[in-house]
Every structure is written in C-alpha cells, then in structure tokens.
Fold these 3 entries.
Entry 1:
Amino acid sequence: MKTSGYETFKVEEKEGQAWVTFDNGPVNIQDIPMIKELDDLAASLEADRSIKVVVFQSAHPEIFIAHADTNFLKDMSTVAVSREDVELLDLQKVLQRISELPQITISKIEGFARGGGHEFALATDMRFAARGKAVFMQMEVGMGILPCGGGSSRMARQVGLGRALEIILSAKDFDADQAEAYGTINRALDADKIGPFVEDLANRMSQFPSDSIEACKRTVYASIDLPIKEALKEEAYWLYQATSKTPAIKRFTLADETGFQNDIENQRDFENLLMGLQGVN
C-alpha cells in the first residue's frame, strides 16, 4: 500500500496493519487536500489485501479531526437543487468509500471530533474514545445546514431515531462517556488505557484471514438495510466466499480430528486457543 506522499496525515504499516495519523496543522481541519488524500488512501487499501486493520488517530494532543473546512462550505450554492439533479458531495463519497473498505477500520479518538470529524468516525467500523479528552458535536443546525458527510444518514442507524435527533438538533458537546451511552462509540476508555487497548485489539484482529474479515463486514452492513430473509441469504453468500478463499475447512477438519471441541479445557480457553489456529493455512 502507499505509505508516503501524504501531507495531511502519516501512514505506518506494520504486521497487517496500517496506522494513519492525522497531522494537518494547525488544528486538523478537514479540508479539500485531506479529503483528496483520504480518497487516495482508500484506493491504495482497496488494492492491498495484506492490510487487515486500519487505525485512524491524531498527532494533535487535543484534536482528532476538527470539522470540515469553512472555506469550501462558504462557496456552496445558494440555489436549491432538485432531487433529480442532486449529486453526492465529495465528502460523502470519500467517507462512504472509507466505510466500504474490506479492512477493519478503527477510530482512536483522543480529542475534539466535531462536524465532519465526527462524521468521519461514524464512517469507520469501530470507535474508541479517551475519557477527559474526546469531545463530540454536530454543529451544523446552528450554522444553517445539516450534517452532510453522512452524519444525518448514519446517526440513527447507529443510535436510534430519538438520540440521533437529540445529537443533531441540540448541537451540544458530549464527552466519551456520554458517547458510549448514546452508542456513537464502542467504548470510553481512560486516557492511559486507550492506546494499549486499541493496539491489542488491532494485533488480534490482524491475524485473522482477510477474506473472512471482509465477509463478516459485508454481511453485518447488509443486515442494516435488508429484510431478515434477504439478510440471511447474504449471510450464506458470504459464507461461501469465505470458505472458498480461506483455510476455514482445514481448521474445522483439524479441530474435528483432534477432538478439539469436546475438551472442556479447550472450551474454557477458546479465546486464546483460537489464535493458535491462525497458524493453520
């Protein structure tokens, strides 16, 4: 994957992981160069199946991603567009592309994530936030618009209708613990615990087969929109995609031949023993 040549963030590749560190001084504004470079990064990740986990973090001690750049927002049209003529905004397209990556994507949030910064986090698969540091907000209603980087579309899917409307229409800051209660993040963690937690999680998940990771992602995302019978068919479809490309059958065969599943000690330690199976290819 491409790890150099970016100006708004830095990329480090290690053991099936890509760690993307936003560093767009002075305050990590989500500007046009950042959006274009995120699109470039997504293209690179789509083509590299050796990367299984992507962690997004920030070099700024107080900011994850601040918000969208007012310079391009002030140039938006004041003429209403019909539904027939409307096109997706660049920010919508890029964040949807991030959402659809075959890799697991994680936002490690240790500062302000307002507006487009919060919408970026919502477009990733998992979000972890540091207590006493992370602050979230959708301020758009107070500016006379609406969250338009996917925030209006993803929020209710994430937290339910009432909470989504509260977050969007109150335009108030909320912290990591409140975000966990709302459901906009997976977990709130103490500031000294978030780094080791995310690293351990990334290390574990990056050992799993890339094709089973993608199959899990595609199936879970499809379940949001499809009726249950169609979702179950999608589940079955992706099962066959996984078994055709991963060592799943070898692993199940080995487990059967060794009596793995019938040993009570194995059942007690399944979480750790699962990692030993990752060496069977």
Entry 2:
Amino acid sequence: MAGATFARALGWEGARVASVYAACASGAQAIDTARAQILAGLADEVLVVGADAAPKGFFAPAGGERPDDPDWLRFRVLGATNPAYFGLYARRRMALYGDTQEDFALVKVKNAAVGAFNEYARYRTPVTAEEVAAFRDGRRSTAAAGHLRHVRRSRRAGAGQLKLARRRGVRDPVRIRAVSTVTPTFPRTVLDLPDIGTDSAVAVDPSPESFRASIARTAYEEAGIGPADLSLAEVYDLSTALELEWYEDIGLCGPGERAKLLRSGATAPGGRVPVNASGGLASFGEAVPAQAVAQVCELTQQLRGRAGQRQVAGARVGITANQGLFGHGSAVIAVR
C-alpha cells in the first residue's frame, strides 16, 4: 500500500509522506527513513505504518522482469520460489550440521507456545512436535517443499504501526540505537540470460561473511554493543530452519551450534536470550511490509515491561533481524 493510502485515511492534512518498498525489509527501511527525518530536523514525530493482504498462491514479483535481481533470477532460472528455496535451505542445514526435522519442529513448538499469550497474534494455538510432524487441528500437515511442511511456514496478511519521536517529552522512552539496511557483498559479474544457467564462467567465490551476519554486525557496530549485551531478539522465521540460521548470524552461537542452542532452552522464554518472544511469524503470518514494524513493536513492549505473560525479565536491549527484497538487509537495535 502506498503512502498516499494512509495520507487519505488521515484526511489529506498535508503531512510529508514517504513510500518504501523492500519486500520483507520494508518496515525497517521505513523506520530508517523516519529516523533520518527526525535526526535531520525535518520532523518531530513520524508515524510508520505497514499493511498487507496478499492473495493465495504465487504472484508476480513487483516491478515485472528484473534480470539483474538475484531473487528474480532464482524464480525465473531455477524455479525456486520461496517454498522450494527454504526447503533446500533446510536440507542443506541437515547435510552440513546434522540438524533434524525434530529440531525444525521444536522451533515451531517454541514459537507457538509463546504466541498463544500474544493478543496481537493471528494464530494462538500451541502445538506439539508430534502435531507438527503429522497433524494440525485435525488436518494432515502436508509437505510444502522437501523437509518443510505447511504448518512450519507462515501465511500472509496483517498490519503494524509505531510512532517515532524526539526523546524530549516522551514518557517511558525506548530508544532506537541502530538501524542496519546494508546490501550483500559480491564481486561484480555479468548475469546474462539464458547463459547464466549453464555458464560456469560467471561463478564467483562466496563472501567470507553471510549477508545475514553482515546485517547484524553493522547494527552492532552502530549501536556500540555486541551479542553478549542482548536481552532478546526478534528474527525472521519465515521458515523454522531459517530461525536456526539467525542464531549464528546474530552471534548467539558459533557455526553449527544452532540446534544445540535451541535444545538447551537458551532461546526459549526464561532462557539466556529468548528469540521470538512475540511468537514470530509462526504466530502472526507473513505480512510483508508490516513484519519488521511488528518486530520493533515487540521490542518496545518488552523493554517497557508490558508484555504480560510473554515478558522477558529485566529486558534492556533487543535486536530485530530480517531480510527482504534481495539487497535489502534489516536489523534494528532498541535499548531502554
């Protein structure tokens, strides 16, 4: 939805409007834009809104054909839309680190359990590992792609909003300490269709640091903190396997130790660093432009001590982590 949609809803009062599109990172990009306007002295208060209601099934990428966009190439050349992509991702984790389907199921169980206490969540029914593997509300949890099943993936719809303001005069303030919207690091190369599918000459060595890790590192550097300072994290669990990946990318554990960290209870309520205390996308569904906004809303509630039965004791520092349209990173650090 364009910014003009909200301007009309507010009554065409002449307010400055900015429209942001970065797929799943849209919310953080909008927060970054709002924050920049406040820091530049162009505004004292800015409303950030994200809303989405997507149709069922696949739909064409925004902007039509984009042959220089690696995400578009993934759809077009490989036929790897998101269900297939995350299914392959899960299989890769199993091959490299020994993750199991039971580990993926435990992520869903953890998030559904805490999401049951979130009044803003769309899905508020706890599940067991057995239900994830076999049944959900009396219906078989059918395979979506490889080792992922429908009950382990999110659905699309929802909205979120927050207000940013200068600190003076704000009651019970939560401060945004950093916003990271970095892009990946890759050598420049030519991506020509149709030869890219068969021409090994265009192959390049991978970056020594994953894109997701660079998103978090940039945020930590701006905020002047590190993973050890975190009280909680809200990460992009578009698939359960992807939540496990974020554990390493935001520095909660070393390579290959993510499933072990999960099993230890460190990322569960009461653990060392609870992850997705909101219930995550597993409980909300995937509202593409709203989810990064909702993540920051959760940090705000937690840091103010207003999260009720989901409250993380003594929460002082939180991070969100997300990735969107290729080249759009997303991380926000908030502090009390």
Entry 3:
Amino acid sequence: MRVAGRARGPSPERPRRALVALLCCLPGVVACAPLLYVSGSGRSTSVSVPAAVPRPAAPAHDAPRPRIVPRSVWLDVTVRQAQPPPRYDDKVVAVFVHHTDSPNGYACADTPSVIRRLYAGQTGARAWDDIGYNFLVDRCGTIYEGRAGGVDRAVTGAHNQGFNHRTAGIAAIGTFTAGTPVPRAMTDAVAAPTAWKPGLAGVDPRGSVSLVSSNSQSRYASGATVLLPAPAGHRDGFRTNCPGAAPTVRLPAIREAAAHLQGRT
C-alpha cells in the first residue's frame, strides 16, 4: 500500500518572480531593470542597461529671435504682384546691410506704407518678383519681414547681385550719406537679425565667412570664393555706395552688438 506523500508547497521562486513582475509594472521603478532571477536559484545577476542617448546640443552662441513684424502688415493684397515660389538655401552665414535710398523724414507709424512703396518700385519699374530685402528696419528700431518665404527659413533674397545665396539682406529705411545721423534704435535693430540668423549656423559676427560669387557683375568673377566680413555692407560685394557712408562707419559697432547678443562678450 502506497503511503500518500505530502503536498508540495509553493516554490520559493514564484513569489520572487511575482514581486519582480509587479515592481516592473509600476511607473518610475527602475531598480527592477538590472535584476533578473535565475531559474532554480535565489541569486540575482546584473544586466547591462543601455545608456540614454544624449540630446543634440544647441549652437553655443545662438541669439534670441527678435520681434519681426510680418509682411502681411505692409503688403496690400489688392496690388500684390504675382510671384514664383520662394527659393531657399541651406543656411544663412552672412548678412549684407543696405539703405533704401528713400526719404528720412517719415513717421514710424507710416513705415508700412513706406515699405509698400519700395515694394511697388522694385516689382514695378525694376520688374523684380518680390521686394529684394529679407528684413527692413525703420528709424524707431522696428524690424519688418521683407521678402516672402518665412523669416525662420534661409530665404534666398535679391539684395546683392552675386551674393544672394546663404546671406540675408537687412535694409535701413532712409538715405544715409556721410554725416547723416543713424539712430541708435536702428543700428540696434540691424544687429538683432545679424546675431540671430548667422548665429543659427554658429557664425561669429565679428569674423569673416567664405562666399562664392554667382555673378560677374558683382565685384568678383562668377565662381570666385571670397572672404567677406559678417556682416558686410552692400558695397563689399557690389559696386555701389550702399549702405551709405554713415551706416558703414557703424558696422564695427553693429558687429560688436551682434556678438553680445550671441553671448560672446
């Protein structure tokens, strides 16, 4: 006659496994990841956990995006010219400073109408497809979006024949020949996109950049690689008096102000 054996009790491994499974289901519990129980033993073995992938670092010297008035504020849709889609470059590495060669005595409240007249002249008499400058700055320091395509993108402008690619054109509204006062608010406003746009590419506004001429009607033959300051005056790339003698002498101060906005000083 067989003697009935004792019933087998629960395995000591089952509570351990249940506990580990429970802990692993709780949010925020990370201690369970490196501990796995080996079947048939009460010992734990460590398991390597992959390290977190670091997030890409932001450019070390990017500047804040300035406040920019959109082109919808100044563009009259009733007289808007038909234009092709915007063209883009991969990035902006330099800025060219211009003046608009227009009257200086405007009220800042009238700046949208001033830009509208500039747009009409460039798309009418000159037959351009859009206003050439990426940004325009009035004497009160307000920055306006110029050429279409989005201020956050590297829009190819039509502001400096031969050097429109990978650059942005910033126009000071007015005429600034030698001895003409240039308001501090205006030069500060020019410095803001000068710091912001090239800063996204890691460019120091106190340095120089290599640009390739695309048109022999510029100061340099087509295909020539040229080292130019960033920012530069319009006349650094093209035979012109623009941006005028007064803003030209302020370019060193604009470069320093832009570097300060990038946190370099």
